[in-house]
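Changelog entry: the Histamine receptor H4 record was regenerated in this release. Current contents:
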Amino acid sequence: MLDTNHTNNFSPGTCITLAFLMTLLAFAIILGNAAVILAFVMDSKLRQRSSYFLLNLAISDFFVGAISIPLYIPYTLFNWDLRDELCTFWLLIDYLLCTASVYNIVLISYDRYQSVSNAVSYRAKQTEILKIVAPMVAVWVLAFLVHGPIILVSQSWKKDWKECEPGFFSVWYIIAITSFFEFLVPVILVAYFNVYIYRSLWKRGSLSRRQSHPPASSNDCGHSFKCRLFSRTSLPELEETGPPLRSEKQRRKGSLLLSLRTQINTQTIASQMLSLSRSDSVTHQRERLELLRAKKLAKSLAILLGVFAICWAPYSVSTIFLSYKNPKPYWYEIAFWLQWLNSFVNPFLYPLCHKRFQKAFLKIFCMKKKATSSHSPSVSS
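Regenerated structure tokens:
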């Protein structure tokens, strides 16, 4: 992606200011993603399927701030010449990291889609290491295949090495193909996962509302489970044809026995009705919690899709129309930097909003705070 003009018309003061801001952005990207990696390493409770994919995203974004931007600053602001092997290495690493970051976002979205659509099979995959590692490796392989071979081949087409940019930048249809796999396909996939989750939420919400508000006909004793329960546990009728009681003592004994049986049946019915109401309330509470959790996932996917489109759409569209224009306009440079800004935003959209990672960050912070307080000298009175 290092495709800007090698020379610039900035004053020395402007170059220093821009270099400071770019360095600050690179440091923020490194710090945010390093915190995610550190939390994953130190807290064993994060060793779950979704957390591994967040770790993979943090690794790709971390090296964007550690390699891509630091090499870009002296090249674009201070006319640092990059030739042959170093330029090719720079291009390969930058394209690989940025594309891997995009594909990791798709993988995380797909993982959330699986947690909603196939919850039972998703839980079974939590402990299968092969099914966790294989998608992570596939992300890096696909990211390299999108740009790596064409960069290596097109570098032999270049006759002028004054600018460090891919040789295929003069061929618009190659740019269109790479932009299709780098931007359009990920946007379509993430949008599909998002729409599916929203549809699933809508269906669950309507079903939950129907269960919480049953129709009036269900109160009929002939169709009600509770009425059937009462009829089964109610006291049987007395036999009118039975033999008469022989004495007053027997009548009193029968009356006492009748009242005792009535009280026992009443208590049995009450306990069974109470257990039914408790089970119904627990079921509805579980449904509400599951619906709330899925809604949060859907909202995060919507934010994810919007931020991803804002950061990647301007560059992907403009590269096709400006492939022959040299030097590139300044607004194209802004669109170019938006991609790296996505690597800064990703830790806040994913791990830092994840409850497990928040607990891990607090745990690490408390450990550091305790260690600092234990090493501090005590003040004697």
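The domain at 12-212+283-368 is CATH 1.20.1070.10 (Rhopdopsin 7-helix transmembrane proteins).
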